[in-house]
Design goal:
single chain, alpha+beta, eight-stranded antiparallel beta sheet, 15 strands
Length: 259
């Protein structure tokens, strides 16, 4: 009898281990299980979350950064039907799972006459178990794209079973757009100005004027999220030869940069 019980236990253990291994192999997002992953719960009513639920989860956590604080305030004023400033606009397209926050800066403020554009949307994943949420932040000053500490794109992996969303970088989702100047920068050393290659440590002397104009000439990548369709449009801005659009194609689980 004891031997029969042991055989049953052994078979159960082998079956459980095999099932665990199968899940581990088929789960396309192992990042969810990273011990350092940052995840929050998405609360919703109905059968599944919609874009407003993802936004509520994103703004539901305390944040000390200036942008998130402003956007959270703007979002809650919108939800309460409070009047927005004339230079503010919120668009929510529930049907297409898309939202957009816009602010035009008056001449006396930062980014004189410029604009901030924040877009949000989500995709249903082909594995049937997840959704991918994205937030893109773009700044423009006088028609030129501007790089700030908030610029760029971030993602969240939403698990349909746990209702948790795990935030990850664009690189985890397969997005890396090359501008050709990733390893370059400018420095000042003993009163002299240099263009430096961080990969090779090579230096090239430049003028003070070239140093001051560096950020005006540096290419900035912006990401436009789809309101209709599934692909992201990446744009390399501020190039002497003009803007370059790159399609970032959704493959059902992650993205493929067609560059």
């Amino acid at each position: 009898k004891n031997m029969k019980t042991m055989r049953h236990l052994l078979c159960f253990a082998v079956f459980s281990f095999a099932a665990f291994c199968t899940f581990a192999q088929t789960n396309p997002y192992p990042e969810e299980n990273d011990e350092y992953a940052y995840a929050v719960t998405v609360k919703y009513q109905g059968q599944k979350p919609i874009i407003t639920d993802f936004i509520n989860a994103f703004f539901g956590e305390e944040s000390e950064d200036e942008l998130t604080g402003y956007l959270s305030d703007l979002w809650h004023r919108y939800l309460k039907n409070e009047p927005l400033d004339k230079n503010e606009k919120v668009t929510v397209d529930t049907k297409n799972g898309f939202a957009c926050f816009e602010k035009v800066y008056p001449p006396e403020e930062d980014y004189k006459g410029g604009k901030m554009l924040v877009e949000m949307c989500y995709w249903n994943c082909s594995d049937g178990n997840h959704k991918i949420y994205a937030e893109s932040v773009q700044y423009f000053d006088g028609g030129r794209a501007v790089e700030t500490e908030f610029s760029g794109i971030v993602f969240g992996i939403y698990n349909n079973a746990t209702h948790k969303i795990t935030y990850v970088t664009q690189y985890v989702m397969g997005i890396e757009v090359k501008t050709g100047m990733e390893n370059l920068g400018v420095i000042v050393d003993k009163g002299e100005y240099f263009l430096t290659n961080y990969e090779t440590n090579e230096r090239k002397p430049i003028t003070e004027e070239q140093y001051n104009n560096w950020w005006n000439e540096y290419p900035v990548v912006t990401y436009s999220l789809p309101r209709v369709g599934k692909d992201i449009t990446a744009v390399i801005n501020n190039r002497p030869e003009g803007k370059k659009e790159i399609i970032v194609k959704w493959n059902g689980l992650r993205f493929d940069v067609q560059q």
